[in-house]
Amino acid sequence: MMKSYLVIRPTQDMLYTAKRSMSCFSKNIIACLLFGIFVIFSNLVYATPISIKDSEGTIVRLAKPATRVVSLTPHTTEMMLSAGAGTKLVGIVNSADLTNQTKNIPKIGAYNTVSLEKILQQKPDLVLAWTHGNRHNEIKKLRQMGIPVYISNPMELKDIAKEVNDMGVLTGHTDMAKKNSQQFLNRLHNIQNTYKNKPTIRIFIQVSNDPIYTINNQTFLGKMLSICSAQNVFATAKQPAFPVSMEQVVQTNPDMIVSISHQNNLAQWKKWPITASNKNHLLFFTGKQLSRPSIGILDDLIRLCKQIDQTRT
Known about the structure:
Blueprint: H1 12-47, E1 50-53, E2 59-62, E3 69-71, H2 74-82, E4 89-91, E5 109-110, E6 113-114, H3 116-121, E7 126-130, H4 136-144, E8 149-152, H5 157-171, H6 174-195, E9 201-206, E10 213-215, H7 220-227, E11 230-232, E12 241-243, H8 246-252, E13 256-259, H9 275-278, E14 282-284, H10 297-309
Parallel strand pairs: 3-4, 3-7, 7-8, 9-11, 9-13, 13-14
Antiparallel strand pairs: 1-2, 5-6, 10-12
């Protein structure tokens, strides 16, 4: 008995469909390969160890971007937000001006009285601290426990941009950090250009009332006055912050007195025969950002420069 075979001759449509199917299959393979390469590359990028030098010159090393960050000062918290890394914060210090972004984050104490126990409860893989605000023995203990600590201490306005960039690198948010820090530097450059050729105003800056304290030009605030084309009458003093008598201030005969203390006691200067009193150039300046080195400081710097500038008219 003869076997019979069914022979099907492919039509043009069948050949076209087959070619399309093979083409799609090939494209899917290529797409899968590309996706696989992307995943592998991404993992390699994030697995690359991170090394950043903080303001004290200490190298902060992370095996991967930090995901659980505790901030021990208000200004480092604001820097984290500027870096686009607010979601990585798992602990911050108490502050009177908490925002919607930070009010629900666990609190670990005040900046000068943080609780080591509360810090450890958050299991941080990075802690942000401040040279002049946090206790050195607590920072030492954290490092001894193997917890990386980044010390913030911006000495110039441009250092704020550098530290925001650092926090972007440490948390894997480099794009947002670079964008916001560059905008900050652009604004700073514009402010400097606005006031650099203005006539100099001699200013006494009062940072507390009883006793009367002032600062030299090596301080953050002293350098900000220079941007406004204002000359600090105690610019060359040896100490960054120090007490002065009313008689010492009178001898300098300032054109203007600016108080940033918590209480307005400028009336005490009106009895003295100095230029600032005679022309009523007595300014009580309120601004939380002026003493907080973060990106928001430029808003208060602009206000301060404008109010100083009014005495030139």
